[in-house]
Amino acid sequence: MLNSITWLFETDLWPPRWRCGEWSDSLGWMHIISDCFVFSAYVAIPLVLAYFVLKRKDMVFPRIFWLFAAFIFACGTTHLVEAIIFWQPIYRFAGLLKFLTAVVSWLTVAALIRIVPQALELPGLATVNERLESEVQERRIAQQKYEAANEALLSRNDELQQFVYTVSHDLKSPLVTARGFIGVLKEDVESQDFDRIANSVNRIEASTERMQELIGDLLQLSRVGSIRYEPEWINPAGLLMHLRDSVSEPGAEHQIEIKMPLPQVFADRVRLNEVFQNLLSNAVKYGCPTPDSRVRVSATDDSNGVTFRIADSGPGIAPELQARAFLPFERLHSGGDGTGIGLSIAKRIIENHGGRIWIESPPEGGTVFVFHLPHPEKRD
Questions:
Q1: Residue 213: what pLDDT?
Q2: What residue numbers bound the domain in which 255 lies?
Q3: Has residue 128 been placed in a domain?
Q4: How many independent structural domains does the chain possess?
Q5: CA dihedral sign, ordered 55, 59, 62, 68
Q6: Which stretches of the chain are DSSP H helices?
Q7: pTM for this prediction
Q8: Strand order in the sheet with 295-301
Q9: Measuring CA to CA, how many Å separate 170 from each of 181, 211, 213, 293, 358?
Q10: Least confident of 108-122, 215-229, 261-275
Q11: Could you read off the pLDDT of 15-37 as tens digits, one per residue?
Q12: What CATH number corresponds to the domain at position 255?
């Protein structure tokens, strides 16, 4: 073994390269310095590759990187030997080193040929970036939906608390009335006061009817969210023309004015008719204080959807009370009958269509109920 190594580095049969031919100092040192710089670069590159592979545990083809490092290092070593030969003609070692470099080179080529089909199946950087951007956008949208849902949940909790308080109060009132007159009725039965007995019975009957009406409206409100909606493109003019005749007070032919033409809207026909009926009835009942009062209906269409405006000539609603108008069983007007559930139902229906409803109080007076229904492509 030692003899083989000694034989490999024997230099007796060849002169140093400086003595082979006519070498000028500038030409010789240009070769030597160039080979040394190539060698240093060919050593630095494998070190960088090795550092990269060791740090990246998720490397797809780590073996090919190690082969490239070995191939580049071997090539660099041949340049170092070429510089040494100027003084020590170790041609046997140089030949062996070139042979080993050739072997490593073709092993690298074979490995490259094997992995090229797999590498071609990998997504490109542009594709990866697009996927990442798409995933980030999806997560951003999901986050926004989560925040919106959380905000809606908090709002619903506040609404539920107010709803429970209002319902308990409104349901308790007829019960208290009926219970009070039951006590009076017992006294009247003992005293045989039939006139007062009839009056007490009538009051008890009115209280129970009121409670039945409240419970019926409460059930109607609870069903709004579970009703199956079947939206379609609707021309609301037909719905409004029919409601104008049924909602207007007797003899008031022009009480409701509809500004034509009206844009089409994508909604459930039955539910939209219910919204219009509640809003128009409310406007006629509370927004027409004189026989010549008018309710004006108009609509505008834009890229986002259709906005309806129902304006009356009533006393208006103070800004601090406008949000309360849509609470269940909330009645801002002392006059008239009803349970105050209509606006709540209208609000729930519009929100189930992805829209919103609000109240405006113009400077000239009156109340304007405004609701917006988005186009289908704008809904979540």
A1: 63
A2: 231-380
A3: no
A4: 3
A5: negative
A6: 2-8, 25-55, 62-84, 91-121, 125-191, 194-224, 236-247, 269-286, 319-322, 342-352
A7: 0.48
A8: 256-258, 295-301, 305-311, 368-374, 356-360
A9: 18, 8, 11, 32, 25
A10: 215-229
A11: 888 888 888 889 999 999 999 99
A12: 3.30.565.10
Residue 293 forms part of a structural domain:
yes
Helix H or strand E encompassing 336: none
Both 342 and 369 in one domain: the answer is yes
Q: Is residue 131 part of a domain?
A: no
Using the structure block, give the residue that is written with the tokens 């490593």. 104
pLDDT at 366 over 60: yes
CA–CA dist 286, 336 (Å, integer): 8
Please check whether residues 30 and 175 belong to one and the same domain: no
Residue type, 220: Q
Predicted confidence (pLDDT) per residue in 107-121, tens digit: 988 888 888 888 777
Dihedral-angle region of residue 317 (phi above 0 means left; psi in -120 to 50 means alpha; beta otherwise): beta
Report which residue type is found at 79: H
Q: Are 39 and 83 in contact (CB under 8 A)?
A: yes
Contact 299, 371 (CB under 8 A): no
For residues 344 and 236, state if they share a domain.
yes
Q: Which two tokens stand for residue 70?
A: 């070995």
In the numeric block, which tokens belong to residue 106? 């073709």
Tell me, rounded to whole angstroms, the distance of Cα 248 from its chain centroid.
43
What is the β-pairing status of strands 305-311 and 295-301? antiparallel
| Residue 130 lies inside a defined structural domain of this protein | no
Average pLDDT over residues 242-261: 75
Instruction: Count the Cβ atoms, other than its own, within 10 Å of residue 288.
Output: 20
| CA dihedral over 270, 272, 276, 278, signed as positive or negative | positive
| Same structural domain, 264 and 158 | no
Do residues 83 and 109 touch, judged by C-beta distance below 8 A?
Answer: no
If we measure between CA atoms, which residue out of 316, 355, 317, 337 comes closest to residue 217?
337
